[in-house]
Amino acid sequence: MNLPTFEFTPALVVAIPLLGAFLTPLVSRINDKLRNIFVIIIMGLTGFFVFLLAYDVLAKGIKVYVFGANTADTIQSLENGLPLLRILFEVDAMSVLMAGISVILGFVAVIYSWSFMKENTGLDKYYTLFLLMIAGMLGMELTGDMFNFFVFLEITSIASCALIAFWTNKGKAVDAAFKYIVISAIGALFILFAVALLYSQYNALNIAVLGSMIQYTFLDKIALILLIVALLMKAGIVPMHMWLPDAYSRAPSSVTVALIGATLASLYGVLRVCFTLYGNSLSNICNNLNINVHSMLGTLLILLAIITIILGVIMALRQINFKRLIAFAAIAELGYMFLGIGTGLTVLGNPELAVYGMTALKGGIFHIINDALDVGLLFLVAGAIYYATRENSLNRMGGLARNLKYTTVFFLIGLLAVSGMPPMNGFASKILIYESTYQLSPILSIIAILCSILLLAVFVKVFYSAFMGPAQPKFKDVKEVPKSMLIAMGIITCIIIFIGLFPQFVINTVVTPAAEALVNFGGEKGFYINEIIESFTLGGV
Questions:
Q1: pLDDT over 50 (residue 450)
Q2: pLDDT tens digit string along 368-408?
Q3: Which of 257, 357, 259, 245 is nearest to 301 (CA)?
Q4: Which residue in 267, 383, 261, 277 sits closest to 322, CA to CA?
């Protein structure tokens, strides 16, 4: 069966939210309701083209789109090793997986925003910044060029900072935005310097070309350190997490959900650097010097992951602010992702444990999906409680289950999912991580399981404090949140339940192709270049 080729899909995925961002202020002048509908349509169209792109990539392999270039010239440049300075999107299964996560979170957030942000002023600016943020995230995930990755990262960071500080009447929101932009600026400078080091040596910016040329020189090592440190800062892993609890807890809940996608886009950058950009060179070093550089890098990620998990859970135990508690739980969940990814890096080069390395990598990638949904749902619930009660402190809540029945159900599902309890989606990804890390070190698996149990205890305490017990007199007339907010929470809940019931389908359909796309860095030099040229000859551009 010959499947159709969607030539311009990669460009449209980013172009549509960018166009929507520039048109939103104009539409807002006509009517606020029309503006809200317009933004939802823009996100819906973006999601449609993302899933169309995913269909194309999963069916045919890597998809390449070159902006403003002749196909024949591009092929010749790639074959001859000439500098490739054109903007090029290079999309594989891992890219479309991350793009799918970003667009789902964005779509849910704009639906939620309809009622949640209704009483605020300046919503034309809010939606413009929101669409710019989504465009930046998607650009980071689809680009095949290091400099353009930096540009899209900057777009995402600037828009995110403005959205974090959107409630300017709350001084702590401005403080949180300041922390975020400082970290973002430092990270961006590190990335730009690393890109300059690579370009000065290899006269190339394309990730595939650089991946086939890097010789792991001293400057390459410096660039690797700069890239990893910068992206770990942006991903919020301990000890570079100081911005995340403030940003997640002080931003509007709809922004926080999208901000999760931005954080995961930086985590995606770590994967690209470790597996794609430096994959061939690290493999060659391992073979030539009989050392396992991947193992050393993976061990570092495992160490950071364990510290992140433990600190995230301990700090969550101490919180009385609902959103801040969830933010620390989100930090712990980032640790589980890096635990799976680090384990995969560590043991993939070991023939005896390679199968567990692939399982660990699949678990880490699968947990990216689940964490985005589970933590996102919890933040939406926290926003719903704030909308209904104007209260964030758990000490001043109680008995909300009587009046917020649907919200209570959504919180219970989020509680079980984020704690890794069966049959929810979080259990499926965490069991893969537990299984693989146990083969590397049983202690790692035991620590991860114990922290999950503690996380469950934390959210059980939250459930009792906020929803059970005697109702506070001031909340006796509290009403359920508007339908748009319930619909947004319902969408994520349905996806969580579906993944929990059919985890193997999700693993086979999207997780395994994504993991394979990452680990195919080995073997013949220039693998990705050959894949690009093949996609051209198949009519990809």
A1: yes
A2: 999 999 999 999 999 999 999 888 888 888 888 888 999 99
A3: 357
A4: 383
Number of alpha carbons in the 13 Å side-chain half-sphere of residue 76: 5
DSSP 285-333: HHHHHT--HHHHHHHHHHHHHHHHHHHHHHHHHH--BHHHHHHHHHHHH
Q: How far is CA 386 from the centre of its chain?
A: 25
Q: Residue 385: exposed, middle, or buried by beta-carbon count in 10 A (0-12, 13-18, 19+)?
A: buried
Number of folded domains that form the chain:
1
Tell me how far apart the alpha carbons of residues 529 and 536 are, in angstroms, rounded to a whole number: 11
Residue 311 lies inside a defined structural domain of this protein: yes
* Residue-wise pLDDT tens digits, 86-130: 678 889 999 999 999 999 999 999 999 999 999 888 899 999 999
- In order, the DSSP letters of 210-229 are HHHH----HHHHHHHHHHHH
Least Cα distance to 490 among 502, 501, 481, 479 occurs for: 481
Residue 226 burial (C-beta neighbours within 10 Å; 0-12, 13-18, 19+): buried
204 domain-assigned: no
Q: Indicate the SS3 state at residue 88.
A: strand
- Evaluated on CA atoms 95, 96, 102, 105, the torsion sign reads negative
Give the tokens for residue 470. 């005697």
Residue 159 belongs to some domain of the structure: no
In sequence order, the β-bridge partners of residue 89 are 65, 143
Q: Is residue 81 included in any domain, yes or no?
A: no
Q: How many CB atoms lie within 10 A of CB 380?
A: 30
Q: Which residues contact 148 (CB under 8 A, 6 or more apart)?
A: 87, 139, 205
DSSP 63: E
Residue 119: what are its φ and ψ, rounded to 5°? -85, 0
pLDDT tens track for 135-185: 999 999 999 889 999 999 999 999 999 999 998 877 688 999 999 999 999
CA nearest neighbour of 125 among 256, 35, 30: 35
Torsion, Cα 85 89 90 96, to 10 degrees, reads 160
Q: Which domain holds residue 306?
A: 292-501
